[in-house]
Write a structure and sequence with these properties.
Blueprint: H1 2-6, H2 10-13, H3 17-30, H4 51-73, E1 75-80, E2 83-91, E3 97-101, E4 105-109, E5 116-125, H5 127-135, H6 140-178, H7 181-204, E6 215-218, H8 223-227, H9 230-233, H10 241-259, E7 270-276, H11 284-296, E8 300-303, E9 329-332, H12 339-346, E10 351-354, E11 358-362, E12 365-370, H13 386-405, E13 412-415, H14 418-422, E14 430-433, E15 440-443, E16 449-452, E17 472-480, E18 486-494, E19 502-508
Parallel strand pairs: 3-5, 7-8, 8-9, 9-10, 12-13, 13-14, 14-16
Antiparallel strand pairs: 1-2, 2-5, 3-4, 4-6, 7-17, 11-12, 15-16, 17-18, 18-19
Helix pairs in contact: 4-6, 4-7, 5-10, 6-7, 6-10
Domain Calcineurin-like phosphoesterase: 271-438
Biased composition (Pro residues): 514-539
Protein name: Metallophosphoesterase
């Protein structure tokens, strides 16, 4: 009895269920990394509202990962008719399709509205197939199904590859950021959902008629004149397949024509004249001129002066490449060219120096010219200004009239300064000048066309004096071989130092209507349809 009385009750020595539960809860609360899910927050403390931040971060990870995936593996190389292309999906706010035809420019189509844009880069044109299509346009009908099939196969492969790229990129970046497989899979799933939504939006807004109204940029801004009226084409073919084939074919034509530069194909009835001026000791000009002579099949080069900068004998060696340019070189003296320069040029092969109204026949053209009366680098002589230029122009006009009376009319007159060139109005169809380092074209009162060229040397040694480098300019003139009248001209402009840009613009020549002047002196106003004279360009 005494032993039993000394033993404590069992309920006091063995842990009760309530005590065991409290111990376990205390351990959970004290274990790092565990959150008391079943425990209510303390009174007066609200949970921190951070779910929207986590969602925003996940969305950012998905977008960046999907973009990286598309950038790395989200493109497909596929042939489309005569072209080898690369198709790529890019993030975009407006969607659409962009066809890049390097180096000519791009065509943009409003094909769909979605946060992704289809980029098609034309990498290469098959020259054999392109030439066949240009020469035999009837093959377009057979090209329609081929191009449509190529586009369908390419876009299908691109869609599959894009899905893999987007999901893989988002998942990989999610795993790198969160280091949790569950979060990474959530990022991949969200990326797939966004891509699916984009596909649905593109399908719902798909506009097959967008190929009828492409937007052109770069050199392709001249494409509408080559492509023609797409709305008239649609009456002959279906809306999408046929227009796509025609668009590809016309881009092929434009690429073939522009990448080789000549605006006209070699034609026995067309003469090509290259007008250059104000080279000012820029050695790069010779390479540019030689390239233009070869690519445009130039018949004769006319230089309207200021080839040199100081006219010293030490500069004469700069002129030696003229003999190897591949075409006859007709030259008049500028105000930076000395008599020493002129005599040196007289001794070069393939060079014709004009002065004091002298005329020569070169490549079937009768050309006359006079050198500038002033040599401005010589500071010991006071420049006489425009009056001296006008007197030179008057003497040149008199020589042109003498040629007319002798039965050997002149087709083209050349003077360095436009002030002198203007005095030949009515005595010759075309007069060329330079000096002012900018282009200017004008039909004078009595029907003579005045063409002033910019600096083919980009200003030469003065190129770095201005705020921006001066552009390199030259023009190709097309003349009818029978009438010797100008039909059109191409203005070629290069982007100054570095030659980072190039532009070729076409102009058609209006045939001037000379104003009748019985007294032989300028009077009255130009006839209807004749452009009014512009103010004299300042020297």
């Amino acid at each position: 009895m005494a032993r039993e009385a000394q033993e404590p009750p069992r309920s006091l020595t063995s842990p009760s269920p309530i005590r065991t539960a409290l111990v376990r809860l205390r351990r959970r609360l004290s274990t790092p990394g565990r959150s008391p899910r079943a425990v209510a927050p303390a009174p007066g403390l609200a949970p921190t509202p951070r779910p929207w931040l986590r969602a925003l971060g996940l969305t950012g990870v998905v977008l960046v990962g999907a973009w990286l995936g598309l950038l790395i593996v989200g493109n497909v190389r596929t042939p489309v008719g005569p072209m080898d292309t690369t198709m790529t999906l890019r993030p975009s706010l407006s969607g659409g399709t962009k066809i890049n035809v390097s180096p000519l420019g791009a065509l943009e189509l409003d094909s769909h509205i979605a946060p992704v844009r289809l980029d098609v880069d034309v990498d290469r044109l098959d020259p054999v197939r392109s030439r066949v299509l240009v020469e035999h346009p009837e093959l377009i009908s057979g090209l329609e199904e081929e191009i449509t099939g190529d586009v369908r196969d390419g876009t299908t492969e691109l869609a599959v590859r894009s899905v893999v790229a987007v999901v893989s990129g988002a998942t990989a970046l999610g795993l790198a950021v969160y280091r949790r497989p569950r979060r990474a899979l959530a990022a991949g799933g969200l990326a797939l959902a966004l891509l699916a939504a984009s596909a649905v939006s593109a399908y719902a807004t798909w506009n097959p008629k967008s190929v009828l109204e492409p937007k052109f940029s770069g050199l392709l801004t001249s494409a509408p004149s080559v492509v023609g009226n797409a709305r008239s084409i649609v009456t002959e073919f279906g809306v999408y397949q046929e227009e796509l084939a025609r668009l590809v074919t016309n881009v092929t034509k434009l690429y073939e024509a522009t990448s080789t530069l000549p605006a006209y194909q070699p034609d026995p009835g067309t003469m090509r004249l290259l007008h250059v001026s104000d080279i000012h000791l820029n050695p790069a000009a010779w390479h540019i001129i030689a390239s233009l002579v070869e690519q445009y099949d130039i018949d004769v080069i006319i230089d309207s002066g200021d080839t040199m900068d100081h006219g010293s004998a030490a500069e004469n060696g700069f002129l030696d490449p003229i003999s190897d340019l591949g075409a006859p070189y007709v030259w008049v003296r500028g105000n930076h060219d000395s008599r020493v320069t002129q005599e040196y040029l007289r001794g070069l092969k393939n060079v014709h120096v004009l002065d004091d109204g002298r005329a020569v026949t070169v490549a079937g053209l009768r050309i006359a010219g006079s050198g500038d009366p002033q040599f401005t680098p010589d500071r010991s002589v006071v420049a006489l200004g425009d009056p001296a230029e006008r007197m030179t122009g008057i003497r040149l006009a008199s020589a042109l009239r003498d040629q007319e009376r002798a039965g050997t009319p002149v087709d083209i007159a050349v003077a360095h300064n436009p002030v002198a060139a203007r005095e030949t109005d009515g005595t010759v169809p075309l007069v060329l000048a330079g000096h002012v380092h900018r282009r200017h074209t004008e039909i004078l009162k009595h029907g003579t066309r005045l063409k002033v060229e910019g600096s083919t040397g980009g200003g030469g040694l003065r190129a770095v004096q201005n705020e921006k480098p001066e552009q390199v300019r030259a023009s190709v003139l097309y003349l009818d071989r029978e009438t010797r009248r100008m039909q059109a001209w191409d203005e070629i402009t290069l982007g100054g130092l570095g030659l980072t840009t190039a532009e070729v613009s076409r102009h058609l020549a209006e045939q001037p209507e000379p104003e009748p002047s019985p007294s032989g002196s300028p009077s009255g106003t130009p006839p209807a349809g004749t452009p009014s004279p512009s103010p004299n360009p300042s020297p």
